[in-house]
Amino acid sequence: MKILVLAWEFPPRIVGGIARHVAELYPELVQKGYDIYLITVATEESPSQEIVDGIHIYRVPVPPSNDFFHWVDNMNRAMEQRGQALFQEQEKFDVIHAHDWLVGDVAINLKHHGKIPLVVTIHATEYGRYNGLYNDTQRYIAGKEGILIYNGWRVIVCSNYMRHELERAFGTPWDKIDVIYNGIRPEKKHRRPDFDYRNFRRKFAEDGEKIVYYVGRMTYEKGISVLLTAAPQVLEALNNQVKFVIIGGGNTDRLKQLAWNLGIWEHCFFTGFMSDEDLDKFQTIADCAVFPSLYEPFGIVALESFAARVPVVVSNTGGLAEVVRHHSTGIVTQTNNPDSLAHGILEILSNPSLAKQLVEAAYKDLGIRFNWSKLAEETAAIYERVVQERQTVEW
Fold it and tell me: What is the 3-state secondary structure (H, E, C) of 333-382?
C-alpha cells in the first residue's frame, strides 16, 4: 500500500510535536511493508530529496512571504506542485495522510485530483488553545481545521480528550474519529557510558540543588507562569536548594520578569533552545519534570521524561491526565493551581522512594501503551479500513 504524507515540519525542521510524531511513526509503517512518501518544507541543511528510515522524503522550498498566512498559502502551493508531479511519477497512491490544518489546502486539492481518500490527524485545535474563538485570526484557523476535518475519510486524534474536543468544537461525528496515542523510542534516552554526569549537571545547578525543569514552547497555554508562581513554596520547603530550569526557544521576557518579581530569579535558569543531544543528556540529570499546561492535547514531553526515568508532575488538563496516571506513573495536579502544583513537586522531591516507584512504573508503561510498533499497527488498520471502504463507493 502506498501512502502520501503531508506535514509542514519534519526533522531537522522541528517546530512542535508533529515533527517527532511523523519521524517516529512512519519508519514503523515502512517496516510493516507500507510505501511512505512524505512532502514537507525544505531546510538549508537537508537535500530536497532523500530516503530516511525507508521514507521517501521530498522537501519543497517556500517562496518569500509577507506574513505567516501568506507563507502557509505559498507552502500549500509548493507542496501541491510536488504532489501533482508525484502523481505522474508514481503508481496511484492508496491514501493521503495530512497532519494538521497548515497542509489542509494541498491535502484537499490532491484528494479530489486523484480521487484518493484522505486521512487527517489533528494534533491540536485553535478552539482548545484559547478555550474558545475570540478574534478573526482564531476563527480563520478554526475554519481551516473544520474544512480539513470535514474532508477527511477518517480523523485521528491523540487522546480521548481530543475526541470530545472535535465533537464539541466542530460537531465531528463520534464514529468518524479514531484515538491513537503518541509514542516514543525510549532507547534514545539511555545514558551513555562516557557521559560526564557531574560536570554536565554543574552547568545548570550546584551539587546540593535539586533540578526541576520544564521543556517546551514558551506560550501561555503551557502554564510556565503557574510553575514560577509555585516555585516560592517549593523553595521555602526545601531551604532554597532547588533550581528551576526552563528549556525552550522563544520570547521569555514576560516569564523572566515574573521570576524577578517573585524574588526567585537566582533560582531560575532560562536556557533558551537546547539541542536534542543536550536535552537527552539533561533529562538524565534532572530530579523532576513539570508540565503545568493549561491546554494539552496529549503531552509527548511527559513520555520523554518517562523514557529518561525522570519523575513527572503534570496538570490534569487534556490528554496529560490520560498519559500520566496519578500516584502510579506520576503526579497529577489541578490545572492553573500553583498551590496544587507546588504540593505535587514537593511530593517528588521529598520522597525519593515514591519518585523511584513512579519512574519504574512509568518506564514500564511506555512499552505497554506508547510503543510505536503497536501504534503503527493501529494506524495501518485505519489505512486498510479506508482503502476497503473506498472500493465500495463511486467517487
Answer: ECCCCHHHHHHHHHHHHCCHHHHHHHHHHHHHHHHHHCCHHHHHHHHHHH
Gap between the Cα atoms of 10 and 26, Å rounded: 11
* Residue 146 to residue 312: CA distance in whole angstroms: 34
- Amino acid 100 reads D
CB of 302 closer than 8 Å to CB of 289:
yes
Strands (DSSP E) along 227-374, which ranges? 242-247, 268-272, 288-291, 312-315, 331-333
pLDDT band of 261, cuts 50, 70, 90: very high
Tell me how long the chain is. Answer: 395
Q: How many CB atoms lie within 10 A of CB 208?
A: 7
Strand order in the sheet with 177-179: 49-52, 55-60, 35-41, 2-6, 95-99, 118-121, 154-157, 177-179
DSSP assignment letter at 158: S
For residue range 17-49, what is the model confidence (pLDDT) as tens digits? 899 899 999 999 999 999 999 999 999 989 999
CA 97/CA 29 separation, integer angstroms: 13
How would residue 192 be classed by pLDDT, with cut points 50, 70 and 90? low
Name residue, grid cell 518544507: 41
